[in-house]
Design a protein that fits this description.
Blueprint (H helix, E strand, L loop, with lengths): L1 H28 L4 E17 L2 E16 L22 H29 L2 E9 L4 H4 L7 E5 L2 E2 L3 H11 L4 E7 L2 E7 L2 E3 L4 E3 L2 E7 L5 H25 L11 H15 L4 H23 L7 H14 L5 H29 L3
Length: about 350
Amino acid sequence: MIVSVLIFFLIFGILVTSHEFGHFIIAKSSGIRVNEFFVGMGPTLWKKKKGETLYSIKLLPIGGACVFDGMDPVAEEKEGYDEHSFLNAPVWRRIATLFAGPFANFIIAYILAVILVSFAAWDFPVISKMTEDSAATEAGLLPGDKFISIDGEKVHMAGEVTMISQFAEGSPMDIVYERDGEVKRTTLIPKYDEEAGRYYMGIYLGEYGSIKGPEALKYAWYEVRYYFKTTYRSLALLIKGKLNKDDVSGPVGMVKIVDDTYEEVKPYGVSAVVLTMLSLTVLLSVNLGVMNLLPLPALDGGRLVFQFIEVIVGKPVPPEKEGFVHMVGMLALLGLMVFVLFNDITKFTR
């Protein structure tokens, strides 16, 4: 478990640092003053001031922040700050600075995906075998068939087929596939499994191959896109009430996931552990980027909403009102974090 905790802190540190560095680099290039840039939380282990920015490293590797001058409209008055404060910067510079954090997570995810794709086997969307009396059999599919698209959505990896099938929720699926070099079409109607409580196509996927050279750039995009779709579609199911509280995990849940994954792949050697954790980092980086873009108070997406309101109406929302909304949002977010933490602890100690 100690190794898993250390791995989690390493992954979390990479994700948070890259996110905050995205804010930092765009703020600096846009002329927005950064008062402090720190990695970690808690007591300060090291600090150094360079120019107008204080750089520091904290004891606990569980967070970080890029603190802009004039970022808090509740405690600070806009008139008391010059043109280099966040509040007085042109609106499009503020938008770029806020968006840069999540965008940095997508960039890091893509870079790591290129490495992952270059060294790990790619799971192509090819049917390896089928269950008896499966929906796929009734649709005329056979082992060896390669999926090209489902419901007009192109697929390049086995995981995409599974994802689309799960979110289809039993509705007919228009399949385009390749057999012996010939493109064919069919309609597949998934069958409901009472015991599992979900619909199945009745197939097993798996044809592994390697991606080399420039092709890795293209397939890395497929990898990141897959995790992006998985994240926002899962959020949609959560909003619709089709997922419950046990489907949501916080830091404790993530440590458990890392530990389970580590124990599962450890027998296959160091390279398997590294590649698997790299894949998990790509997933979490995309997840963090998407979550921060949600239009919720206190998140980057919530702050972006106020910037776009300013663009539309031609004037900013009063700082004190925006600050109050973000303060309420932060309290709600902290409450949610406590709930998720408690739920994780009870879930994994049952």
